[in-house]
Design goal:
- The protein is of the alpha/beta class and 326 residues long.
- The protein has one domain: Ribokinase (UDP-N-acetylmuramoyl-L-alanine:D-glutamate ligase, 3-Layer(aba) Sandwich).
- Helix content is 40%, strand content 22%.
- The chain is built from 13 helices and 14 strands.
- The strands form two sheets. Strands 6-5-1-9-10-11-12-13-14 form a nine-stranded mixed beta sheet, sandwiched between helices. It has a five-stranded mixed beta sheet with strand order 3-8-7-2-4.
- Helix 3 packs across helix 11 (276-288), helix 9 crosses helix 10 and helix 11 (276-288) packs antiparallel against helix 12.
């Protein structure tokens, strides 16, 4: 196996986020599951955008957020994801490259516009996401660059990609290419409702292709239809080399073979939970690909998650290297 020139290559949805405050009544009136993610049509996106309060627009996407965090910690990072050749696509490309992330995917010429996620933040900081995938659904096997994959220590895949069929095929092609090159495959389960839609496919992928699994408590319980967290943790331990399972203010649990590491959360004032899991994964992978112990990787993840939930938006606003003492 040749030496890697990237630490992490993320593959996920390239999305521009629009973040706005909303009370529980606004969510209930529209039948939204608080704290979850729903896919919406062009018409639904336009109607919701019109009804939302003032918003903050920023480049997002789950794995893209993780990549920005990891790059902020000094990791060598790349990202593959589809935008359109439109103004929002230009914004996304500029932002992720400015964060220090290599972004070689060619934009879609014609067809659907760049994806956007309309995020409603409740008074308690919970985020409810409504996603119009747009150009993301065109990401397919032809966009899986085997040369880029072969030069990364870890290829990090976004669970949301299980929704569009073309992207799901790309997902599997990327995993095959990574293992053929002797690289590791990491996966974020992304959302319990997404897991519920594709549970059998997720279980097979985790068991057959995944080396490093990221999930929060709701996602891992959904994956294994487990009666409690202990049972879900045991199932994950049997399926993957490393599982990093986050539990909000309870911190995280990292299991790897016979090892178990309980990592405390980093105290902070919660303003907006958007991107907390993304930041945790970015911090964890930046430390792990540096060869640091799993408990330290978990503490980097916790520190990064605390930073992003302390302000509006999913990308860090402080110097992360100073934050973790890197």
């Amino acid at each position: 196996m040749t030496a890697s020139s990237l630490d992490i290559l993320g593959i996920g949805n390239a999305i521009v986020d629009v973040i706005s405050r909303a009370d529980d009544g606004f969510l209930a009136a529209r039948g939204m599951h608080k704290g979850g993610m729903a896919l919406i049509s062009t018409e639904e996106a336009e109607a919701l955008y019109a009804a939302m309060g003032p918003g903050v627009e920023s480049s997002g996407g789950s794995v893209a957020n993780s990549c920005a965090v990891a790059a902020g910690l000094g990791a060598r990072v790349g990202f593959l994801g589809k935008v359109a050749a439109d103004p929002l696509g230009q914004v996304f490309g500029h932002d992720i490259r400015a964060a220090g992330v290599h972004f070689p995917t060619a934009p879609l010429a014609g067809g659907a516009p760049t994806a956007r996620c309309l995020i409603l933040v409740s008074p308690d900081g919970q985020r409810t996401m409504n996603t119009y995938l747009g150009a993301c659904v065109t990401f397919g096997e032809e966009d899986v660059d085997a040369a880029e994959i072969a030069r990364a220590q870890v290829v990090y895949l976004e669970g949301y990609l299980f929704d569009p069929p073309a992207a799901q095929a790309a997902f599997r092609a990327a995993a095959r290419a990574a293992h053929a090159a002797g690289r590791k495959v990491a996966l974020s389960l992304s959302d319990p409702f997404c897991v519920g839609r594709h549970r059998d496919a997720f279980r097979a992928f985790v068991r057959e292709e995944c080396d490093i699994l990221f999930a929060n408590e709701a996602e891992i319980l959904s994956l294994y239809e487990a009666p409690d967290f202990a049972a879900a943790q045991a199932a994950a331990r049997a399926d993957v080399q490393i599982a990093a399972l986050t539990r909000s203010e309870k911190g995280s649990v990292i299991v790897a073979g016979a090892e178990t590491h309980e990592v405390a959360s980093t105290p902070t004032e919660v303003l907006d939970t958007t991107g907390a899991g993304d930041a945790y994964a970015g911090g964890f992978l930046a430390a792990h690909t540096r060869g640091l112990p799993l408990a330290v990787a978990g503490s980097w993840g916790s520190a990064c998650a605390a930073e992003v939930i302390s302000h509006f938006g999913p990308r860090p606003q402080r110097d992360l290297k100073t934050l973790v003492g890197a």
